[in-house]
Amino acid sequence: MANVKHAAYYTNVFANWSKALGSKPTEAQLSLAHVFGRPGKQSLAVAMALRDGGVSGQQIKQASALFDGKATPQLNHIRDLIAAGSFDRTGPGYCLTLSDKGQKWVETHTAKAAEVKVETKKVSAKSARKAERKAKVKAAKVDVETVIAADSMAEGGPVEPELVTMTSDGPQL
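and the corresponding structure tokens:
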């Protein structure tokens, strides 16, 4: 399985992280949060709750504001995980620890992820050359369009399109 850097999803958030938010969640905490949900504000809140001191509601709001500018509480996912028995809530605020049920979930889903095989498609040399030619033709078309546009601008401004009527004898201006 590919080595995923879970912190990469939150580079903008971590670049602006302040001391008031406490310690940044570790790669292991983010990885565990992503087993239970996709990367985003909810998973960031779960990862913050997995830290030693947990997380307060105010810290969740501040971190979510760093994510997308909206200081909204991200408690739905945390509450659902606690209600499902995947995590136990300990201490003040939101301080989570992984329960036995949650550990079984992690083992099951990481095993399934390890079984997935990535298949690569072999490309023949002929196909590679064909794709290269198509890319060159597309680039040439763009160059021609920009030259035509530049010429029309140099001749006194943009040219108004003319109305063309199709008849049985061919196109008529």
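(Above: one complete record from the training split.) The beta strands are 87-89, 96-98, 165-167, 170-172.
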